[in-house]
Design brief:
The complex is a heterodimer of chains A (133) and B (345).
Chain A (H helix, E strand, L loop, with lengths): L1 H15 L24 E3 L1 E2 L2 E2 L6 H5 L5 E7 L5 E9 L8 H5 L5 E3 L14 E2 L1 H6 L2
Antiparallel strand pairs in A: 1-6, 2-3, 4-5, 5-7
Chain B lengths: L3 E2 L6 H37 L15 H11 L10 H18 L6 E8 L2 E7 L7 H22 L3 H32 L4 H8 L7 H4 L1 H14 L24 H26 L10 H22 L5 H30 L1
Parallel strand pairs in B: 1-3
Antiparallel strand pairs in B: 2-3
Classes of the chains: A alpha+beta (133), B mainly alpha (345).
Bound molecules: iron/sulfur cluster (2 copies).
Main location (chain B): membrane
Pfam families (chain B): NADHdh (PF00146)
Organism (chain B): Geothermobacter ehrlichii
Chain lengths: 133, 345
């Protein structure tokens, strides 16, 4: 018992010595999330509009039921999402929407700073999703 | 010219001034250490857990205790409806005050000789030397329990009530073993005055009581840690849940008082431990107060180190350790000490 006691103490003491801290001073220093990180969604634009063809696959597959799509037709007769909304308070960042999309119109970015002061600000509409970098 | 011991009767003015200065310095220093102990603890434990601890307020977070103080004063202070208001407000003070006044009997240096009105007076560097110093310490240590029980009871919350009961049960059981560990020391020293106990140990490091009473030292170390509710014995705060036990319902400055008391208690136990077993202010360096502070800081560092290393014990393990291991060991130690003392005479 004494041996384990001393062993434990020596381990923590070794960490006390300089050079062991791995903390990042977050607001000042930011780490790059990995390629596979699933952060805020982004609607991919193509030429003059968004790529999305309002096929309703992503709201169907979404386990959190947080995507709202309303389709409409534009003057060229193409389907487009008149309304495209993701309620990030409900989203679980599973990425199923991205996998389901047949035209790769939605993808996930490394954006993880999503704090807001009002609930309404967590509802990302089409414009905000298109502007996400 | 030999110095006369300063007392209220031989030089009242000097006595009062000396007393005021001593009280200010000791309590000021204690509160200062309490404030900065919180910073040191966050730093030490931070580094031991491979993170940095506070960094933003001041150089390496040095102004953090001040920022915390300001924040705590301006935080909303909530008193639960139907809480018993007066005990609820008094409880935090009832925990803090006994631990602060215990410091009064700890000697922190050799006598200071001062010339006053053509006569030399020796000012003892100790707020007051009671000839029942140890009993006073034990009595004051016992008072803290009232604060904890009152805090739990008056909060109008079941968590707090259970937390308070649990805490007082723990403190009472460990106080027994702590008291008995100390008994062995004064059987050896044949005095209850802390001043004389230090004097008996002041020859060299080999005169320290830790060599004559290693078991009592160890027992007091463990029971002292348990008595001030430090990890791994911080049951009052939580067993497995994280609801803060007896202080669940407290907020802002009142909550902070509990933690000031915890750190003040650390200082007190460290001071008593150093005084009883490690020669107090005497040795190893020639500067009395520095010695004592060094010993206090080392002990506090040790407690932080323990906290960063070991998980808390279960409540039944705690009780078992207290009653079935520490208490019998303390009694056995008294028996052996008694036999040795009698044989030596
Ligand atoms: S990441 Fe998952 S939960 Fe979030 S919108 Fe896409 S499918 Fe729904
Ligand atoms: S799955 Fe793709 S194309 Fe279909 S609605 Fe969603 S984003 Fe648009």
């Amino acid at each position: 018992m004494i041996k384990e006691f001393i062993q434990g103490l020596s381990i923590t003491f070794k960490h006390l010595l300089p050079g062991h801290s791995t903390t990042v001073q977050y607001p000042k220093v930011k780490l790059q999330p990995s390629e596979r990180f699933r952060g805020l969604h982004r609607l991919v634009p193509t030429q003059d509009r968004e790529k999305c063809v309002a096929c309703y696959l992503c709201p169907t597959v979404c386990p959190a039921k947080c995507i709202t799509v309303e389709s409409a037709e534009n003057e060229k007769g193409e389907k487009y999402p008149k309304v495209y909304q993701i309620d990030l308070l409900r989203c679980i960042f599973c990425g199923y929407c991205v996998e389901a999309c047949p035209v790769e119109a939605i993808e996930m970015t490394g954006n993880y700073e999503l704090a807001n002061y009002h609930r309404d600000d967590f509802v990302f509409d089409k414009q905000r999703l298109l502007n996400t970098k | 010219m030999t110095a006369e011991m300063l007392s209220l009767s031989n030089a009242p003015l000097l006595f009062i001034i000396a007393m005021a200065v001593k009280i200010l310095v000791v309590f000021g220093l204690t509160m200062g250490i309490v404030a900065y102990a919180t910073w040191v603890e966050r730093k030490v434990i931070g580094h031991m857990q491979t993170r940095l601890g506070p960094m933003l307020t001041g150089w390496h977070g040095l102004l953090q205790p001040i920022a915390d103080g300001i924040k705590l004063f301006f935080k909303e202070d909530i008193i639960p409806t139907q809480a018993s208001k007066i005990p609820f407000i008094l409880a935090p003070m009832m925990i803090l005050i006994p631990s602060l006044i215990t410091i009064a009997v700890v000697p922190f240096g050799s006598d200071l000789v001062v010339n006053f009105g053509g006569k030399a007076y020796a000012i003892p560097l100790q707020i007051t030397d009671l000839n029942i110093g140890i009993l006073y310490i034990l009595a004051m240590a016992g008072l803290g329990v009232y604060g904890i029980t009152l805090a739990g009871w008056s909060s109008n919350s079941k968590y707090s009530l259970l937390g308070g009961v649990r805490a007082s049960a723990q403190m009472i059981s460990y106080e027994l073993a702590a008291g008995l560990a100390i008994v062995a020391v004064f059987m050896l020293s044949e005095t209850l005055s802390l001043r004389e106990i230090v004097a008996l140990q002041s020859g060299s490091i080999l005169d320290w009581y830790i060599w004559k009473q290693p078991l009592a030292f160890l027992l007091f170390l463990i029971t002292g840690t348990a008595e001030i509710n430090r990890t791994p014995f911080d049951m009052p705060e939580a067993e497995s849940e994280l609801v803060s036990g007896f202080c669940t319902e407290y907020s802002s400055m009142k909550y902070a008082l509990f933690f000031m008391a915890e750190y003040a208690n650390m200082i007190v136990v460290a001071a008593i431990l150093s005084t009883l077993f490690l020669g107090g202010w005497s040795g190893p360096t020639p500067w009395g107060p520095v010695n004592l502070l060094g010993k206090i800081f080392s002990f506090m560092f040790f407690l932080m180190w323990i906290r960063a290393t070991f998980p808390r014990v279960r409540y039944d393990q705690l009780m078992k350790l207290g009653w079935k291991v520490l208490l019998p060991l303390a009694l056995a130690n008294i028996l052996v000490t008694g036999i040795v003392v009698v044989l030596q005479q």
